């Protein structure tokens, strides 16, 4: 059982939020911030690699916090899709961040309820 899970749901969410802030700001860098958007990348492969690399950084943080590879894979997929939507102009920055943090709330619920195999 995760030490954070033993500290309670609020501490677990706070750890997820810190991980998210680190991955979205200092660990992203200008290159990924720009090229994870299809219209800014030089070509399809640069865009796919950049968006995937950024999402993998987030997945790594979630894995460290949760201790769960399953939740990390969920983060990889969800973060990729959410950033795709923002990059395509379907919604703005505030909605993007709200969606990401909503995923973290769901991860906390899944962990607290014990809905994943150990």
Automatic annotation (TrEMBL):
Which Pfam families does the UniProt entry name for this protein? DUF3307
Q: Where are the transmembrane segments?
A: 47-78, 98-116
Query: Which of UniProt's keywords are assigned here?
Result: Membrane, Transmembrane, Transmembrane helix
The record's listing under InterPro entries reads: Phage_phiKZ_Orf197
Q: Does the keyword Transmembrane apply?
A: yes
- What is the name listed in the Swiss-Prot or TrEMBL entry for this protein? DUF3307 domain-containing protein
Tell me the organism's taxonomic lineage.
Bacteria, Pseudomonadati, Verrucomicrobiota, Verrucomicrobiia, Verrucomicrobiales
